[in-house]
Design goal:
The protein has 11 helices and 8 strands. By secondary structure, it is an alpha/beta fold. It has an 8-stranded parallel beta barrel with strand order 1-2-3-4-5-6-7-8, surrounded by 6 helices. Helix 5 crosses helix 7 (139-151) and helix 10 (216-223) runs parallel beside helix 11 (240-247). The longest helix has 19 residues, at 180-198. The chain is globular. The model has no long low-confidence stretch (mean pLDDT 97). Bound molecules: 1,3-dihydroxyacetonephosphate. Residues 9, 95, 167, 172-173, 211-214, 232-236 line the site of 1,3-dihydroxyacetonephosphate (13P).
Amino acid sequence: MRHNIVAGNWKMNKNAGETAKLLSDILNQLPSGKEVEVLVAPSFVNLSQAIHMLEHTNIGVAAQNMHQAEGGAFTGEISADMLTSIGVQNVILGHSERRQYFKETDALLANKVDTALKHEMRVIFCIGEELKDRQNKQHFNVVDNQLRDGLFHLGANAWVNIVLAYEPVWAIGTGETATPEQAQEMHQFIRETIRHKYGESTAENVSILYGGSVKPDNAKEIFSKTDVDGGLIGGAALKAEDFVAIVDAF
Ligand code: 13P
């Protein structure tokens, strides 16, 4: 069901001690009674600790990536079963840093999505254009292709476990945010594309998050847009006060 979500993608930041500190600061400062689901995505090695510390709280835990195979000779990789066996029910897939630095393709990501869903995980699937795509007015095409190639093989029922994150690559870690109007325009396009393929109910029920330099001072305006259901937060998720202020923007 479509609802508000604020998720912190910690990327390759925070060691074990820093993870514990950030989680306890967030827990201490988080306002109650907000209509928003809160998720954090620490590194793989700190997921167990996060699961343990957040047990009996209303903050959920997500992994930042996952391998597509069930298991076997894939040195250094992490499977869906390993994640769910420690209580991780959410996974971020298709982040632009995975696409760019680790050459993850749409076809590979479609495979990862299938594996995650088979293990009854919820997928936060990232899409978004690069600066050159927007300059060449190709941004709608790029996002359309990422959606089709990564997710449109799924049946409508599978979409209850999909959350989308629109993250324009040029806005990630740059301090340059998409304007609320640019975010709304793309989110509306994404919902419309899903509506064409799957119909009204699937389109209306999917939560679409915006990611890219969301900060306490711009979150409220971005989240106020009709088709923006929350945020995937990078840098600002690493400071408890900022992350909590972003949750508080709802
Ligand atoms: P920043 O908020 O640091 O721009 O990162 C966004 C992001 O990549 C979240 O996944």
